[in-house]
Design a protein that fits this description.
This protein is of the alpha+beta class. The protein is built from 13 helices and twelve strands. The radius of gyration is 31 Å and the shape is elongated.
């Protein structure tokens, strides 16, 4: 039996192909939007994995250290080590900032950690771990920094001695690791100008009618005390320890907040990126509606352009089922071409995005099924128009 749909497609293959390519680019955008969301979730999970912790201890009544600011004393880690079930404790600081290397700048999440404790990068793709107590750094390759380069952070230069991969924040910013003491100074310690301004303000305030020198000393002492804070204490538990029980003990006796891995994933995925996820979902819905409307319009227009041919088919005895099948096959063929072009386009341009785009095979399969269903539903408008064609149109035309 002659495949009428195939013959009709071959007759106008150029128009059909370019229509499929246009639809494919729209489908590619849809797949990319889904990949952006998957990438955001993967970035959050990667950050949790990179921490290498079983519990996150942060300031009480906060969602820190990633979703909200958190500040705890760095000597808390020593106190926590005396608690049952805790194997290791490491202080960490997190600060998103701009750093410069020559004329090049990069937005990074600056991480301060203690070598050999939770928070340290688990592996390096090049270079070596930090060996000095100051002015060395590990950089994610996404920063664009190379081994041996000097990176300017606040008032000091840091030498990049190691490179990591996929060490990013939940917002996709690459991480830059430096020693904890340096990170505390960057985040908490005031510079000389700030101390002088604090001295002048204290001296000019009638409520603090004191000599200038004690005011300056108090400002210095307050600044030094601030440098003993961190954003979180990361804990590794002993194999037999129950994370929920240990977290409960910390909340009860230390008056701090402790989050398990599952709770931290909920904070990052269900709360921190929830608004972005809703926006992406709305874009996906809009793109799906637009794609369906385009397919329906194209198939409907192609059908109206073949009114005489359809009338001839009816006149020679073609059944409504045959005509409906022809239109449906054309719609599915258009969807197939569109999906292949869209998948190829999304795979090609995904690495060019500044944020990580994760294209999962499962999403591609679901996308293919939805495209085919969308095309099938869109063809119903054209089928209804074709079934209303009067065979006499072939004679009267």
């Amino acid at each position: 039996m002659i495949n009428l749909a195939g013959r009709d497609i071959l007759h106008g293959w150029g128009k059909f192909l370019f229509t499929g390519i246009g639809l494919g680019l729209l489908i590619g955008v849809t797949l990319t939007m889904a990949g952006v969301y998957r990438g955001m979730v993967d970035d959050a999970e990667v950050m949790i994995d990179n921490a290498g912790a079983d519990l996150w201890v942060v300031q009480q009544d906060t969602l820190g250290p990633y979703a909200e600011p958190s500040s705890v004393r760095d000597d808390v880690a020593r106190d926590l080590l005396g608690q049952r079930g805790i194997a290791q404790a490491g202080n960490v600081t997190y600060l998103t900032m701009q750093v410069s290397q020559g004329s090049k700048e990069a937005r990074v999440m600056l991480v301060g950690y203690e070598p050999g404790k939770p928070g340290e990068p688990e592996y390096l793709v090049a270079g070596r771990p930090l060996a000095r107590a100051h002015y060395e750094a590990l950089a994610d390759i996404k920063t664009g920094f190379a081994l041996g380069e000097q990176v300017r952070i606040r008032r000091h230069d840091y030498t990049v001695v190691g490179l990591t991969r996929r060490m990013v924040s939940s917002s996709g910013d690459p991480m830059l690791f430096i020693p904890l003491k340096d990170a505390q100074e960057v985040q908490f310690l005031k510079d000389n100008d700030a101390l002088l301004n604090e001295r002048a303000r204290t001296a000019s305030n009638p409520a603090f009618n004191r000599p200038n020198v004690p005011g300056l000393l108090e400002a210095v002492q307050a600044s030094q005390a601030a440098s003993h804070f961190v954003n979180a204490v990361l804990l590794r538990l002993q194999p037999e320890a129950d994370a929920q029980a240990v977290a409960g003990e910390i909340r009860r006796w230390q008056h701090l907040q402790a989050y398990t891995r599952a709770q931290m994933e909920d904070i990052l995925v269900a709360r921190l990126i929830a608004t972005s996820a809703k926006q992406i979902f709305m874009f996906l819905v809009i793109l799906a509606i637009v794609s369906a409307a385009i397919v329906a319009f194209i198939i409907y227009t192609m059908t109206l352009n073949k009114i005489r041919e359809i009338a001839v088919l009816k006149l020679i005895g073609a059944t409504n089922r045959t005509i409906s099948s022809m239109i449906l096959q054309q719609a599915l063929g258009l969807g197939l071409i569109g999906f292949m072009v869209g998948k190829l386009a999304a795979t090609f341009w995904a690495p060019l995005f500044p944020k990580y785009v994760l294209l999962l095979p499962g999403d591609a399969i679901k996308g293919f099924a939805l495209v085919m269903l969308m095309c099938a539903l869109a063809s119903t408008f054209a089928i209804r128009a074709a079934l209303r064609v009067d065979p006499a149109t072939a004679i009267g035309g």
